[in-house]
Automatic annotation (TrEMBL):
Protein name: ABC transporter ATP-binding protein
GO CC list: membrane protein complex; plasma membrane
Listed Pfam families: ABC_tran
Domain of life: Bacteria
Organism phylogeny: Bacteria, Bacillati, Bacillota, Bacilli, Lactobacillales
Length: 258
């Protein structure tokens, strides 16, 4: 049996008061295998961000478990939790979340400056990631002096600097134009293929989703459909067409509904 990197087990999140609860996650369960590029799609309000935030320990689930390499993250003590947040997961946000008063370089190394990784190793990783994401020319610039695409590639380098086990990405192309979105997705996919880097990505965008190896469609906090790319004999364009078909069926005929 293949090892599971991440296991989401019967995860529930109820917001609000007893009289008017919102079941944002309704007992969702799935696994992520090492090296997978897993997409999560679903209509607005279906629980996608809640799911990522429970995995990232930004919010606490009402019930259920998340295991990383077999370890229950809700049982972590504060030291384990800091290590989990700082270096075992990398979070890529839709709106970049760079600090305005730090340069590109300072933003990228922030996670390891906090967690104390030796500076030679840090410089080596910074150089490799900057070249890979084509951001060497913006390392000395502030976010206000960068394009959206550059900001998101700086954010991607920051999320990889501590060499996390898994990247959690919430609508990473949501604030980008089509070309910058494509570049970002090609870079993430490249990382996934070259280093077997595991990615769990929430997206509304069928183009972005077509880079995934598998997609879970969620609605009302549970999985209602799954698509898997037939890697050997299905092109990305063919997979994109299948994603659009599911979106059209499930979204009432419009590919933009999800
Ligand atoms: N802090 C909160 N308090 C109360 N209800 C919330 C809170 N956050 C989210 N919800 C509700 O939980 C449900 C799931 O929200 P969530 O943000 O996870 O959905 P989503 O699929 O990410 O949506 P979108 O695609 O629009 O970002 C929604 O009905 C939402 O209104």
């Amino acid at each position: 049996m293949e090892n599971k990197l991440l296991e989401v087990i019967e995860l529930q999140k109820v917001y609000g008061k007893k009289e008017s609860p919102t079941n944002a996650l309704d007992g969702i369960s799935f696994d992520v295998l090492p090296g997978e590029f897993l997409g999560i799609m679903g209509p607005s309000g279906s629980g996608k961000t809640t799911l990522l935030n429970c995995i990232a320990t930004i919010i606490k689930p009402t019930a259920g478990q998340v295991l990383l390499s077999g370890e229950n993250i809700s049982a972590f003590n504060s030291k384990d939790l800091a290590q989990y947040r700082g270096s075992r997961i990398g979070y890529l946000f839709q709106d970049f979340e760079l600090l305005d008063n730090l340069t590109g370089k300072e933003n990228i190394i922030l996670p390891i400056s906090i967690h104390g990784i030796n500076s030679q190793e840090a410089d080596k990783r910074l150089n490799e990631l900057s070249e890979y994401f084509e951001i060497t020319n913006v390392l000395q610039k502030f976010p206000s002096q960068m394009s959206g695409g550059q900001k998101q590639r700086v954010a991607a380098a920051r999320c990889l600097i501590a060499n996390p086990d898994i990247i959690l990405a919430d609508e990473p192309t949501g604030a980008l134009d089509t070309r910058s979105a494509r570049t970002l997705m090609e870079k993430l996919k490249g990382m996934n293929q070259k280093d077997e880097r595991t990615v769990l990505m929430v997206t509304h965008d069928a183009n972005a989703a077509s880079f995934c190896s598998r997609i879970l469609f969620i609605q009302d906090g549970i999985i209602f459909h799954e698509l898997r790319r037939q890697t050997n004999d299905e092109s990305q364009d063919e997979f994109y067409d299948r994603i659009l078909q599911v979106m059209a069926q499930l979204g009432g005929g419009s590919a933009n509904v999800l």
